[in-house]
């Protein structure tokens, strides 16, 4: 799964630490999400979408041929 | 563990057990039966209890004196990625333990170790597998 988290965050001028604090996750988690090394739970995905006032699909891009 | 029990109790009980264990190790010249192992069990449980208690005391101290650090600690503890990492590591460790246990039982049986020890090891191994199956079934019902 790809995501536009880094792009959206930077566009809004938010630091990783600030996003992490707002989502109540560690800064490393935000980093891993942005690098695509970690896929969030559906709850965290909703939290992120709600934080940016976007839909989940606007942030996370599902790829069909992906191995879960 | 019961959170209503004060961490000071755990720390003090730990120190007391540790002291009793060390006292028996130093003073008992020719221990027999249970007394051979009991002091070391006291030291082990005492150390664990002391560590658990101190963790609680330090957490309380951090909450009162550095709320930001305490909040960060709580975030790190509840962080879903950290939880996923811990669970994955535990799963890997379980796989390794199953393998090591199997190898150990095989090695002990070849070495002709006492049958009681072998039976105990096999029982422990089977208990682990049954425990795994039980939780698999339980989670299967829940999810």
UniProtKB/TrEMBL annotation, chain A:
Q: Which organism is it from?
A: Paenibacillus sacheonensis
Supply the name of the protein.
Helix-turn-helix domain-containing protein
Enumerate the Gene3D superfamilies for this protein. lambda repressor-like DNA-binding domains
- HTH cro/C1-type domain spans which residues? 5-59
Q: Which UniProt keywords apply?
A: DNA-binding
Instruction: Tell me the superkingdom of the source.
Output: Bacteria
The GO terms this record gives for MF are: DNA binding
- Read off the InterPro entries from this record: Cro/C1-type_HTH, Lambda_DNA-bd_dom_sf
TrEMBL record, chain B:
Q: Which organism is it from?
A: Paenibacillus sacheonensis
**Listed transmembrane segments:** 7-25, 37-59, 93-111, 117-135
- What keywords is this UniProt entry annotated with? Membrane, Transmembrane, Transmembrane helix
Q: What is this protein called?
A: DUF2178 domain-containing protein
Q: What is the lineage of its organism?
A: Bacteria, Bacillati, Bacillota, Bacilli, Bacillales
Keyword Transmembrane attributed: yes
């Amino acid at each position: 799964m790809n995501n536009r988290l880094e792009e959206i965050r930077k566009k809004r001028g938010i630091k990783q630490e600030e996003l992490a604090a707002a989502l109540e996750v560690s800064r490393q988690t935000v980093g891993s999400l942005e690098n695509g090394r970690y896929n969030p739970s559906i709850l965290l995905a909703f939290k992120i979408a709600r934080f940016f006032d976007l839909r989940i699909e606007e942030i996370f891009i599902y790829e069909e041929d992906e191995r879960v | 563990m019961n959170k209503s029990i004060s961490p000071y109790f755990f720390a003090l009980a730990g120190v007391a057990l540790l002291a009793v264990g060390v006292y028996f190790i130093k003073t008992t010249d020719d221990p027999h039966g249970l007394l051979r192992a009991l002091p070391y069990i006291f030291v082990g449980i005492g150390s664990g209890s002391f560590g658990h208690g101190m963790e609680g005391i330090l957490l309380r101290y951090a909450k009162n004196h550095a709320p930001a650090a305490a909040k960060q600690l709580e975030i790190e503890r509840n962080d879903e990625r950290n939880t996923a990492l811990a669970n994955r590591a535990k799963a890997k460790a379980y796989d390794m333990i199953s393998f090591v246990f199997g190898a150990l039982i095989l090695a002990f049986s070849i070495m002709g170790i006492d049958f009681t020890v072998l039976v105990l090891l096999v029982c422990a191994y089977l208990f682990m597998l049954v425990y795994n199956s039980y939780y698999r079934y339980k989670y299967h019902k829940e999810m």
